[in-house]
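Sanity check. The docking grid for zinc ion depends on where the pocket ends up, so I'm generating a full predicted complex first rather than guessing from homology. Inputs follow.
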Amino acid sequence: MQLYKDQQIHVFNSLSGQKERFQPIVEGHVGMYVCGPTVYSNVHLGNVRTFMSFDMIFRYLKHLGFKVRYVRNITDAGHLENDADEGEDKITKKARLEKIEPMEVVQRYTVDFHNVLDIFNFLPPSIEPTATGHIIEQIELVKSIMDNGFAYEVNGSVYFDVHKFNETEHYGKLSKRNLEDLVHNTRALDGQSDKKNPQDFALWKRAEAQHIMRWPSPWGDGFPGWHLECTAMSTKYLGDKFDIHGGGMDLKFPHHECEIAQNEAAKGCSPVNYWMHANMLQLNGQRMSKTTGNTVNPHELLSGDNKFFSKAYSPSVIRFFNAQSSYRSVLDLTDNGLQASEKGFHRLMDAINLLEELKGDSSSTFNVQEWKQKCYDAMNDDFNTPILIAHLFEAAKLINQIKDNKASLTSEDLGLLKQTLHDFSFDVLGLMNITEMNTGADKLSGAIELLIELRQQARLNKDFAMSDKIRDELAAVGIQLKDGKDGTTFTIN
Ligand SMILES: [Zn+2]
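Predicted complex below; grid placement will be based on this.
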């Protein structure tokens, strides 16, 4: 279904600072790149919010029938402790502290990242490339940038010449900065650096003797600069120019600015038509930070094992909470906010389940077709999920009115309402119908109770072979029976 032919999306482009009509380079196809995590620690909840927003965008584009190639990378080398190309590689440092191999660090936190995203019902990206898997492409890119005169080598490291680049292009156009201001606001080089100017950034860094993560290059053993991998991987899989590049707001400068500069210097064109940035997640009105202790990780939020929240919240409630704000607004995580979202989420799910029981009438008192287009209009307006949710609540209200005989829909309209609610709640917002899941669990419990009863009868008939068989076979699939004085209970592992 090519729904995109009837729907006109407008996206807020960080580059122009305006909402623009979305027109992909190739009709019916969308190339989207999102900067993934640096896998040196458990995934940060703020990052989960960013990826959740782009998961929703990916889902909507797919729902409209676009063929989307969604590339989200894994940074497993080259990300130094501070953005000014100084300090230790984050992964190497973790490996040193934990006395394990860097690739063990990468594996551990990549697995954690995927687990968390699975719990939150993310769709996997089309391609998930790693920095270490694209060293050759990165070296080639450095060579092109040098050939075009925008980089220089000093002592085995290669730096991007920002001042040279700025003579013909505007360095800072995405983050609305000017080189003069940057020069004014940066400390002068301390004589330790190989850079010509403090604004220059590393494309390739020489590896010191103790540096474990190293690769041979025309400039000696070293490792790529952090900004380089995204240019190498985005253009490899999406072309020199592609549709959407996303990431967290904090990546605008310097990371995304450097990506633009690298692409223009290497390939002579700006890489991206629409730059999209998801805003920050706060906790109780303040910036999340490990140093101040104002932080909670995804596992703690889901288990309720933390000092900020009164209870555990389900992944869908957290998704719903996220969707109640625009991806471009700062989102403030609070206990009250989550409780309100939990109520709202259940109200919506109850209505969706109630819809199954409603019967069609001879006429409709509500224009479902018009309502459906309003849902699309909300999403077409820069993925405005809070407005979409307001429309979904309108439908929930209608469903309750129909139940109370205060409104009516024909069978055809009921079908359309149901399809649209399912499309937007489950396919686009990625919510999971907890009530349905509970029903599944209830069915399982019912079946186990029945087996417990049959086992009881077998024992009364002194058929111990049968009673043992029931107990053992249940145990083999992870269901433990426990006989007590009040009867038999069970646990599912
Ligand atoms: Zn990136």
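Relevant for the grid: The radius of gyration is 27 Å.
Also worth noting: The mean pLDDT is 93.
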